[in-house]
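Escalation from tier 1.

The customer reports that the assembly of two entities below gives different C-alpha cells on two consecutive runs. Tier 1 could not reproduce it. I'm attaching the input and our single run for tier 2 to review.
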Amino acid sequence: MSNIGKPARISAGAAVLWLFFGADLAAQDAQQKSTLLLRDFQPKSMLHAPVHSVLRAKFPVIDVHNHVNDARSAGRERISPTQVLDVMDHCNIQSLVILTGGWAEALQRVVDEMVKPYPERFMVFTQLDWTNLDSPDFSGQMVKRIDDAVARGARGLKITKELGLRVRFKNGELLSPDDPKLDPIWAECGRLGIPVAIHVTDPEAFFHPVNGTNERYEELIAFPDWSFYGPQFPSKDSILQARNRVFARHPNTIFIGLHVGNWPENLDYVSDVLDRYPNTYVEFGARQAELGRQPRRARRFFLEYQNRILFGTDAPPSEEMYRNYFRWLETADEYFDYWGYPEQGRWKIYGMELPDVVLEKVYHLNAERIFSQFKGLAARKGGDR
Amino acid sequence: MKSKTTLDLSEYQPRSMLHVAETKVPRARFPVIDFHTHLTFAARETGNVEVGEKIRFLAEPGDVLQVMDRKNLRMMVNLTGGSGAGTEEAVRKYQEAHPGRFLVFTEPWWSRFGQPNYGQFQADAIERAHRAGARGLKVTKTLGLYLREQVHSGPLVKVDDPRLDPMWEVCGGLKMPVAIHVADPEAFFLPIDRFNERFEELNNHPEWSFYGRDFPTFREILEALNRVIARHPRTQFVGLHFGNNAENLGFVGETVARYPNYHVEMGARIGELGRQPRTARRFFDKFQDRMLFGTDAVPPPYGNATPQQIFGDELYEIYFRFLETEDEYFDYAPAPVPPQGRWRIYGLGLPDAVLEKVYYANAERLLGLRS
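Tier 1 run:
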C-alpha cells in the first residue's frame, strides 16, 4: 500500500501545500508565484565564507595563454604595453605568451610592439594559415611560414579549435587533426624545438543541444557559433582521438593541450592522455570553472601531474583576473566566483591550496623547461636526423 | 553577460557534464538515530498554531520500518508529536508498539497562550506528556514568527519571553531535550527578488518569507534563543537545522562553544553544509560531540513539496553519501532543480570516530538511551 521508499518527484506542489496549509494558502501561492528569467537571476550568496585575497603570486608566473595585443587586435582592443607590464609587475607575472601571433607581417607587428622592446616579458606564437589547404604544397608552405615566424621571433605554434570543427577542403570535407598533410608541420615544430599549443574541441556541453538542460546554456545563447551540436560536426571524442594519434606519431614534438586538454570535465581521460604521451602537457586557461567545481579531484590531478601542467588564463590581463586565479590555486577558500562568472555555468568554485613545490612548477618551472628546449633554425639547417 | 535568452529560470535544469566519482551508500556505516523526523502532525492548525489535540498520522510504522531496516536506521525521533491526547496516541502507535525504533516528542499548546499563567500550564502539560512517554519537547518556528500575544493577533511573542521560562525549566528537570527551530535561512528574511539565492524556494512557498511586516530580524531571533539557552543551563537544547545558520558556521561554532547545553542537528541543511565542505568538515571535527544526525524527513505524499525531505531510501542515501564519501558536485535532493538553492554539494568524508558520534552516540547520550 505504501509508496514510501520509491523516489517521489515533485508534481503538483500546490495540491500538496493544500494538505498542509489549507486551500487559502494554496490559492495565495498560485497568485503570488512570479516568473523570473534565467538571465535576470543574480543570486547573492548568503554564505559567510572566509575570503583570502592573494595580491601577488607566491612565485613568478609565466602566463602561457594570452591574446593581449595579438595579431587580430590591431586597433580597438589594444592595451598599451606599459599598462600590461604594470599589471604583470603588480601580480608577479614574469612573462606572458601571446599565442595568436598570426604570421608574416601581422606577426612582425606583434614582435615589434611587444617582444622586441620587452624580450624578457613577452613571447609570441605563430599560427597556421588555412587558405591554401587544397594546394598540393600546403605542408611545404606552412613549414616555410613556421621557419619564417621563428626567424621573426616566434617561439611556438598555436592551433585553434577551427581544426577538427571547421577547417574544410574545397570539396567540403573536414580536415581531421591527424591528416597526414599536417605531419610535416608537427615534425618541423619538433625539429625547431618549439611547442605546439593546441586547442581542439570545446567543452562537452557545446556538443549537446542548446536548451534548458544544457549547463552552458547562457554561454551558448550569447555565442551561438560555439555550438557544435548536430550531424555537421564530428563527435568530441573522435576529434580528441585524432589529436591523440598526432601526439603518438610525433614523440619529438611538445604539445600543450590548452584548456586542460579540452576535457577538464573528465580528468580521468586527461590523465590517461598524459600517461600515454610523455611529449604532452596541459594548460588551464579559462577552465577554472571546470576544475574549481571538483576541487579534490583537481588537486589530485595537480599533484599527480605537477610536472605537466602550465599556468594560463586566456583572459585580458588585469590585476583582478590574475588575483582570482591565484586565490583558486593558492587558497582553500570555498564557493567563490571563477573569473568570468556566470558565463560558463552557474556554479561556484573552490580553491586548491596547492603546496609550494607544485605551485612553483605550475607557475613557471614547467613552462621554462619547455621553452629551454628551443633549437631554432640552426637545428633546421641540419635537416632530418 | 550578453545573454539574450528568454528562458524562464524554472526551465533551466542543467545536467552536469562532470565525469566524477559517484559512490553509492545504500546503508549507513553505523546504526543511525534520525533525530529529526515528522511521522505525525497536528491534524488542524490555523496560522501555524495547532487547533485541538488531534493528530494526523503520516505513515504506518510497518512501512517506515522497512525503509529503516534497509538503510540501517536504528531509530527515528518523531518530533511533531502534538500535545495532550495527540502525544499519547503517537506514543502508543510508534514508541510503545515498536520499542527501540521510535521516540516521540511533545509540543507546546500555543493555542492556549492567551490564558493566565500559561507558563505553568505548559510546564504541567509537558510533565503529563512525559508521564505518557514523550521523550522531549519540539518547538517550531511558530515561536518568534507566528505566535502573537492573542495567539493570532497582537505583537509577536519573543523567543525569550520570560513567561515561557517554566516550560524550558521543566524540560531540564525531566531530562527532556528541547529540539528547537527558530528563524529560518537568512535568505528568507530578504526580499523575494532576483538577488535572493532562495528565490525559487520562496516563490514556491511564499508563506516562508519573513521579510518586512513586523518580523524581527534574523539576528534578533538567534540572539533571543541564545539568551534562553544561557538562562536554562540545566536544559539541553538542540538547534534544529544547524541553528538555522548553517550559512554562518562561525556564528554556530561560537554558540556551541559558549553554551555546553547546546547541540545542533543537520536536517534539511546538507545543502548549506555541502557547499562549504572544508569549513563544514572542520566544524564536524571540532564539535563532533555536539552534533546530531537528522533529516527532517516527511513521508510522501506530504513531503513531496519539499523534495529535500521526502522520507525514503533516496533521502538517506544522499545524507550517507554526504557524510561518508568525498564525492564532489552532487545533488542534495532528488529533484530536477535543487529546491533550496541552485548549487551542488561535496561530501565530507568523515572518519569513523566522528561518524559514530554523529550517527548515534551523541543522540543516545542526549536521549538517555544508554544505561
